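Colleagues,

For the teaching module next term, I've prepared a clean inverse folding example: a structure given as tokens, and then the sequence designed for it. I'd like students to try predicting residues themselves before seeing the answer, so please don't circulate the second half yet.
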């Protein structure tokens, strides 16, 4: 038996058969982890990790099943070196920005990793609401996180995810894989002898807010106004005590000391008739939020035999998010079927159908219609209960209750009337035919499809701050992508040599169109329909179609199972490039050396030692419609708007060159596994917009320019310090660092890549890095002291670099303990070195809402002297002695334009997830007809250490559809989650 098992393993390494169950069982007896597991690489080709010259890190199904997330990708956070899953903190769907090995493109949206499901790439595009994150008082709307293609993937259906980090690993996928790829393999039937296996997975989880800002409840609303007696006072309106001080959003009013003032009276919906106790309402923001809940039930049925495998699953998820009247429902159906029609022909198909529906998803951003805006402006002396009636007496659906400012919408109006609905249907699937001509030659034909149809609705009632007569919007989004692949493969073994070659081609077509109808103003209040519109601007559908045809090839060679070489080549023809530059070719080479075998170094201490290296060049095409100038429809019927960007009819593809080298070690019978990787990536000829002088008639032009270099290191380790029958301990860790360097910029380029809110500027300079944040800072004397003029901080002449949005390094640590039938697991992760600007901190500090604005309030007259110097007429400096009011001081020191005082370190350590489970013994469950019964309690984001003052240091801004790290612009709270799980198999 031992000889047969060894034979099967050898054949498997040569690629002739897959590792079967017997081989796996033998490996488990001798080692903790197989040193040569099978992973899925580009085009869905299964390869042995031993033969790869690049990193292909595999994440198993347990990661996604055991600690469920609304977006499965978040389960990988901190578990894979070099991978970052960034969300905008914008609600329950949690659209993810997945990057590998840092930022390579100047354009924020061009840095995402490719997502591939069962060998078929996903489009995974995001359609925004066409609104910026900063828009207060502009009369516009707010960004809403409606999710993207990632949200349609059911975590219970994931068998594994292979992370291909570099261009070398994903070169066969072309342009979209220049930033690496995540290869998702979904589950298929894996039972013995045709037996039917049923799995039921149910979990319930509950969300509370992880972290709150440090609000102060010592002083109330006001601006240091004094009455006739020279005392600080408050009055909601004109009263016997003095003029109104109730119209301010600032909290520089009187201290709460048991006094009585004329205040707002909810029964009067105006000023109280008598003076009321001046008191704080410390739950007047936190009390708006509730305990959120998520309930999910999934059932799957599978069966397989020698010829046929089958699996189908149904999953329903209901989410009630922490903000009242928000959440979503998701339904997933998946089907996997494969059948060996003849000895040579195998047909397989995978199909999934997803619906995501919501009556209301929360809005984010700094704008009147977001709950973030209300939280910023809520004052300590205002009771949340005063807002609950929503409408003024006799004015239902006509005039809201917002007694302190017409610019601040009622929070319950936001939650229950300003609805952002979505109905999304997604179909993904593929059908594959594999024909084995003989033992050497095979053919694979695969056709895949991703169909997204989405309807969005937006409702804004009468009297809302930005739409006094209401607003209604319908968006119809159609996004279809079709992929067809043909692949011929040949393999042969000649003594100690093994060779294989694959050649094929693909056709990809993406069809996108959005119809957008907006009713600006409603004839009848509370009736949301296009027919009730006062006016409907003309909106023509805007397509974004794209087609790419490709041919590619892969050649692999191995010698004595010790040395391996891969060579790939791909040529693309892209519809988004001009005819002269439409065709572009790119190659890759990778190799690996099994040093432990070459030098015969194997022992009980050293089991495996591998050296690997790779080089790849990838061409990257452009977004659609950047070659010629196009007019767009105006709101005035029959008229058009001239383009503001001058497009480029001679665009060339970008170039991305990747070099990677590393080593893998396995020690002490594979009880200790260590991986090290160093890489460099150079992006050139980037397709970017640069500024033009206004007299040209255009604001920007599109060019090829710029050179960006990324260098980094990745370390990962897995170890079993203890492994016995009744107790085992597995520990895993990873660490990664990335250095980004701008090598060149276009001539005449001002360096400004983008900005958020017109305050934080992302600027490129030679020698700098992508993610460098510029803005106004404090002006300082030569010895570093803050310079003041007339008691307020001096304003510098121009913007300067404040820091970088991306951390210097990230790390993760996972622990798994098995104690008889108990399993205890938990993971930490963290980062060091980045910063983020906080709009919420600026506004709350300016208005005196945070505890950091308390110093100086007890000074005589509420005056404060800033710690710093003033510049004398002769250029020398002397201590600042000018006193100003605390409201003026904090309003100036934390003013919106001061990026330095409102930016903070995003260093953090999180207890990312934890789980305790109990699996009942076979003796108990077998009489019940069960194969497995597991109960578990789990948690996510249970604890966090950080000095970031707002909700979460993992902050980013949803600006239209772009997730921009480094800026907090009306972030919503992050959830701390505790849940319970039941898993049954029979």
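(Answer key — instructors only)
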């Amino acid at each position: 038996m031992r000889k047969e098992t060894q034979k099967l393993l050898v054949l498997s390494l040569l690629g002739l058969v897959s590792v079967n169950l017997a081989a796996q069982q033998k490996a488990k007896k001798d080692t903790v982890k197989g040193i040569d597991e099978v992973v899925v690489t580009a085009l869905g080709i299964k390869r042995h990790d031993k033969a790869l010259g690049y990193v292909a890190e595999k994440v198993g199904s347990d990661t996604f099943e055991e600690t469920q997330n609304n977006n499965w990708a978040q389960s990988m956070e901190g578990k894979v070196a070099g991978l970052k899953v960034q969300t905008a903190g914008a609600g329950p769907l949690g659209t993810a920005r997945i990057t590998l090995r840092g930022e390579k493109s100047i354009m924020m949206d061009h840095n995402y990793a490719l997502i591939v499901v069962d060998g078929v790439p996903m489009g995974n595009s995001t359609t925004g609401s066409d609104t910026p994150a900063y828009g207060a008082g502009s009369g516009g709307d707010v960004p809403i996180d409606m999710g993207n293609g990632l949200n349609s993937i059911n975590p219970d259906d994931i068998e594994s995810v292979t992370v291909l980090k570099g261009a070398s690993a994903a070169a066969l996928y072309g342009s979209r894989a220049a930033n690496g790829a995540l290869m998702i393999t979904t589950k298929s039937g894996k039972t013995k002898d045709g037996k039917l296996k049923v799995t039921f997975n149910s979990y319930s989880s509950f969300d509370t807010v992880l972290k709150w800002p440090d609000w102060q409840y010592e002083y109330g609303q006001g601006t240091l106004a004094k009455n006739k007696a020279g005392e600080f006072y408050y009055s909601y309106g004109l009263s016997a005590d003095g003029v109104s001080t109730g119209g301010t959003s600032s909290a520089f009013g009187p201290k709460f000391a048991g006094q009585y003032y004329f205040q707002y009276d909810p029964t009067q919906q105006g000023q109280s008739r008598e003076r009321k106790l001046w008191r704080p309402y410390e739950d007047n923001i936190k009390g708006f939020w509730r305990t959120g809940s998520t309930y999910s039930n999934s059932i799957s049925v599978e069966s397989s035999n020698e010829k046929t495998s089958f699996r189908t699953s149904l999953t329903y998820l209901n989410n009630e998010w922490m903000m009242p009247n928000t959440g979503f429902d998701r339904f997933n159906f998946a089907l996997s079927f494969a059948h060996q029609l003849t000895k040579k022909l195998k047909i397989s198909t995978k199909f999934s159908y997803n619906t995501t529906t919501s009556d209301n998803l929360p809005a984010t951003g700094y704008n009147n219609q977001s709950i973030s805006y209300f939280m910023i402006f809520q004052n300590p002396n205002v009771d949340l209960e005063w807002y609950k009636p929503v409408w003024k007496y006799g004015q239902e659906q006509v005039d809201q209750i917002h007694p302190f400012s017409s610019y601040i919408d009622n929070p319950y109006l936001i939650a229950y009337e300003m609805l952002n609905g979505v109905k999304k249907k997604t179909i993904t699937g593929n059908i594959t035919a594999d024909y084995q001509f003989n033992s050497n030659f095979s053919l694979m034909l695969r056709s895949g499809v991703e169909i997204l149809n989405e309807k969005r609705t937006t409702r804004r009632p009468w009297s809302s701050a930005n739409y006094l007569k209401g607003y209604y919007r319908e968006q119809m989004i159609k996004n279809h992508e079709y992929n067809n692949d043909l692949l011929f493969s040949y393999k042969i073994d000649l003594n100690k040599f093994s060779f294989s070659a694959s050649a094929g081609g693909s056709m990809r077509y993406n069809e996108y169109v959005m119809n957008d109808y907006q009713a600006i103003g409603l004839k009848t209040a509370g009736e949301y329909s296009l027919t009730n519109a006062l006016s409907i601007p003309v909106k023509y559908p805007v397509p974004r179609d794209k087609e790419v045809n490709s041919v590619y090839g892969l050649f692999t060679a191995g010698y004595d199972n010790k040395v391996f070489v891969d060579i790939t080549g791909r040529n693309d023809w892209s519809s988004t490039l001009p005819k002269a530059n439409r065709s572009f070719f790119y190659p890759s080479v990778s190799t690996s050396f099994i040093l432990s075998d070459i030098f015969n170094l194997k022992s009980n201490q050293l089991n495996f030692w591998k050296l690997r290296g790779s080089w790849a060049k990838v061409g990257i095409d452009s977004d659609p419609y950047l070659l010629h100038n196009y007019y767009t429809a105006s709101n005035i019927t029959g008229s058009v708007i001239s383009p503001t960007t001058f497009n480029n009819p001679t665009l060339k593809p970008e170039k991305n060159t990747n070099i990677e080298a590393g080593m893998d070690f396995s020690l002490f019978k594979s009880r200790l596994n260590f991986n090290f990787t160093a890489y460099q990536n150079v992006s050139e000829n980037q397709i970017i917009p640069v500024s033009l002088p206004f007299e040209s008639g255009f604001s920007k032009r599109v060019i090829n320019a710029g050179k960006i270099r990324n260098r980094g290191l990745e370390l990962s380790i897995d170890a079993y310090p203890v492994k016995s029958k009744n107790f085992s301990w597995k520990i895993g860790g990873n660490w990664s660092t990335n250095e980004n360097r701008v090598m060149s910029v276009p001539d005449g380029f001002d360096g400004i890549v983008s900005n958020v809110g017109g305050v934080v500027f992302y600027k490129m300079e030679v020698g700098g890095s992508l993610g460098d944040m510029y803005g106004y800072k404090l002006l300082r004397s030569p010895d570093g002291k803050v310079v003041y003029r007339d008691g307020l901080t001096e304003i510098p002449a121009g913007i300067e670099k404040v820091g970088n949005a991306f951390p210097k390094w990230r790390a993760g640590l996972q622990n798994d303990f098995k104690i008889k039938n108990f399993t205890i697991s938990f993971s930490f992760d963290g980062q060091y070195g980045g910063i983020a600007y906080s709009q919420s901190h600026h506004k709350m500090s300016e208005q005196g809402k945070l505890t950091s604005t308390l110093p100086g309030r007890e000074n005589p007259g509420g005056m404060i002297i800033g710690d710093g110097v003033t510049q004398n007429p002769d250029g020398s400096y002397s201590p600042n002695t000018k006193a100003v009011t605390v409201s003026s001081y904090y309003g100036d020191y934390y003013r919106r334009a001061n990026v330095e005082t409102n930016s903070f370190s995003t260093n953090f350590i999180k207890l990312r997830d934890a789980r305790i489970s109990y699996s009942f013994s076979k003796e108990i469950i077998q009489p019940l007809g069960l194969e497995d019964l597991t109960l578990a309690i789990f948690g996510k984001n249970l604890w966090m250490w950080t000095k970031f003052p707002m909700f979460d240091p993992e902050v980013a801004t949803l600006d239209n559809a772009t997730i921009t790290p480094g800026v907090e612009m009306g972030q919503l709270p992050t959830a701390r989650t505790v849940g319970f799980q039941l898993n049954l198999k029979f």
